[in-house]
C-alpha cells in the first residue's frame, strides 16, 4: 500500500516508518524538518535497507502539497506533523493553532479533493486534562488545559463533528500516553532541536552530564511516592499500534465509515522516582535530582484502560520499563558518539 506519513522524520513518525517499510508498504514522508533532521530519514533507510520517498514540504504550503497528491495516489495518511511542546504552546498559542489545527484542516481538505479516505491522526492523552480517576478510558470527558491540548481536541472535533461531510472515511484518532525509548539500533530516538522539557530527554541530559541534576517537579501529589505518575510506552510499541490501526482501516469489515478514538499506553503507571530508579539500575548510571515545586499545569496521575485498543486493534504493548530506559540510554550514547565524530 502507498502510505503518506506527515512528520515522518520526527520521534514517533520515524519509528513508524521503519515498521511500515518492514511490513512491505511504500512510504512517502512529508516533513518541514522544523523539529527534526534529515538524518532520521537516512537512518530509517539504513535500518530497513529500503527507500523512503522524502519531500521537505510544510503542510501549510498548499501548492507543494497539491503537487504531491497529484503525483501519487495514497491509500492512507498517517498524520504526525505538528508542534508538540505543552509549555511552548502556552507562550505561543497561535503557533499551535496554525501548525496543528490549520495545517490539519488543509490536509483533510486535500485528502478530500483527491479522494483519500483512510486517516490515522496523532492525538494525545493530554485531551483528558486532569482525569477524575484512573485508569482513563475513551469515554472520559475531554478538557483542554493548554493550547497544545486544545489544538488536538479541535482536530478531533473537526474529524468527528463534521463526519457527515466524509461519511465513508475511515478514521482512527490515537491518544498517546507518554512515549519514551528509542529504536534498538540506537539510530533513531527523541531528538528535540530545543531544550527538552519532557522527563526522559532530561534524564538523558543528566546521565550524559550535560546537566548537573534533574528537577523533580513536586513530591506532594497523592500518588504512591508523591511524584507524578504517567503511563510510559516504548515508541516501538506505539509504532506497532499505528501499523495495527492501519490494518484495521484497510481491512475492517465495518461497512460504513467510522471515526474511532483509542488510548494507546501500557495500562501501567510509574512515578518519576520509579523512572529514575529503573534508569539508574538498568544502565548503571547515577541520576542526581532535586525536588522542586510542582510544574504549573501538571496533573498528578495518568494511565490508560487498555481494553478498547486491545479489543479493536488486537494490539498490546510488549516492552517494559527496563527496555524503555535501556534503549533511551543506548540512543543517547550513540548520539554522543556521532556528535564527537562530527566535531
Ligand atoms: N517531570 C519532572 N522533571 C522534568 C520533567 C518532567 O519531574 O524535568 C515530571 C512531570 O512533572 C511529570 C512526569 O515527569 O510528572 C512526566 O512529564 P513529561 O513532561 O515527560 O510528560 P507530561 O505527562 O507532562 O506530558 C507528555 C507530553 C505531552 C503529552 C502527554 C500525554 O509532553 O505532549 O505527555 O500524556 F500530551
Question: Can I get a quick summary?
Answer:
The protein has helices at 11-22, 38-48, 62-71, 86-91, 93-113, 147-161, 199-207, 235-251, 272-283, 307-313, 321-342; strands at residues 2-6, 26-30, 53-55, 76-79, 118-124, 170-176, 178-180, 214-217, 229-230, 232-234, 258-264, 270-271, 289-292.
Give the distance, in angstroms, between the N- and C-terminal Cα atoms. Answer: 41 Å
CATH topology-level fold name? Rossmann fold
Number of helices: 11
Mean pLDDT: 95
Q: Which CATH C-level class is it?
A: Alpha Beta
Number of E-state strands: 13
Q: What radius of gyration results from the CA coordinates?
A: 19 Å
Q: Output the strand order for the largest sheet.
A: 3-2-1-4-5-6-11
User: What is the CATH superfamily classification?
Assistant: NAD(P)-binding Rossmann-like Domain
Q: Characterize the biggest β-sheet.
A: 7 strands, parallel
What is the H/E string? EHEHEHEHHEHEEHEEEHEEHEHH
Walk me through this protein's architecture.
The chain is α/β, with parallel strands linked by helices and 343 residues long. It has a single domain (2-342), classed as 3-Layer(aba) Sandwich (Rossmann fold), CATH 3.40.50. The chain is built from 11 helices and 13 strands. The chain has helices spanning 11-22, 38-48, 62-71, 86-91, 93-113, 147-161, 199-207, 235-251, 272-283, 307-313, 321-342; strands spanning 2-6, 26-30, 53-55, 76-79, 118-124, 170-176, 178-180, 214-217, 229-230, 232-234, 258-264, 270-271, 289-292. The protein has a 7-stranded parallel β-sheet with strand order 3-2-1-4-5-6-11, sandwiched between helices. A two-stranded parallel sheet has the order 7-10. It has a two-stranded parallel ribbon with strand order 8-13. Helix 2 (38-48) links the parallel strand 2 (26-30) and strand 3. Helix 3 runs parallel beside helix 5 (93-113) and helix 7 crosses helix 11 (321-342).
Amino acid at each position: 500500500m502507498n502510505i503518506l506519513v506527515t512528520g515522518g522524520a520526527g520521534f514517533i513518525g520515524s519509528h513508524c516508518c521503519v515498521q511500515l517499510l518492514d511490513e512491505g508498504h511504500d512510504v512517502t514522508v512529508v516533513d518541514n524538518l522544523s523539529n527534526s533532521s534529515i538524518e532520521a530519514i537516512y537512518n530509517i533507510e539504513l535500518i530497513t535497507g529500503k527507500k523512503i520517498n522524502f519531500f521537505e514540504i510544510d503542510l501549510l504550503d498548499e501548492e507543494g502539497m497539491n503537487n504531491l497528491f497529484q503525483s501519487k495516489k495514497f491509500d492512507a495518511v498517517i498524520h504526525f506533523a505538528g508542534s508538540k511542546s505543552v509549555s511552548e504552546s502556552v507562550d505561543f498559542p497561535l503557533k499551535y493553532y496554525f501548525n496543528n489545527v490549520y495545517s490539519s484542516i488543509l490536509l483533510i481538505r486535500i485528502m478530500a479533493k483527491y479522494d483519500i479516505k483512510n486517516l490515522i491522526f496523532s492525538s494525545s492523552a493530554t485531551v483528558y486534562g486532569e482525569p477524575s480517576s484512573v485508569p482513563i478510558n475513551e469515554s472520559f470527558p475531554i478538557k483542554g488545559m493548554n493550547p497544545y491540548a486544545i489544538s488536538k481536541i479541535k482536530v478531533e472535533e473537526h474529524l468527528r463533528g463534521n463526519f457527515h461531510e466524509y461519511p465513508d472515511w475511515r478514521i482512527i484518532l490515537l491518544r498517546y500516553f507518554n512515549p519514551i525509548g528509542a529504536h534498538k539500533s540506537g539510530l533513531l530516538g527523541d531528538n528535540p532541536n530545543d531544550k527538552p522539557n519532557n522527563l526522559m530527554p532530561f534524564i538523558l541530559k543528566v546521565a550524559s552530564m550535560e546537566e548537573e541534576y534533574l528537577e523533580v517537579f513536586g513530591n506532594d501529589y497523592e500518588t504512591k511516592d508523591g511524584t507524578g505518575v504517567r503511563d510510559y510506552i516504548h515508541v516501538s510499541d506505539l509504532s506497532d499500534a499505528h501499523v495495527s490501526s492501519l490494518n484495521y482501516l484497510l481491512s475492517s469489515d465495518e461497512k460504513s465509515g467510522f471515526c474511532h478514538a483509542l488510548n494507546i499506553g501500557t495500562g501501567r503507571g510509574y512515578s518519576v522516582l520509579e523512572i529514575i530508579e529503573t534508569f539508574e539500575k538498568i544502565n548503571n548510571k547515577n541520576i542526581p535530582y532535586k525536588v522542586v515545586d510542582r510544574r504549573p499545569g501538571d496533573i498528578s496521575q495518568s494511565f490508560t484502560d487498555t481494553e478498547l485498543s486491545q479489543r479493536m486493534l488486537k494490539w498490546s504493548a510488549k516492552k517494559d520499563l527496563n527496555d524503555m530506559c535501556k534503549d533511551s540510554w543506548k540512543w543517547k550514547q550513540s548520539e554522543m558518539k556521532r556528535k564527537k565524530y562530527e566535531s
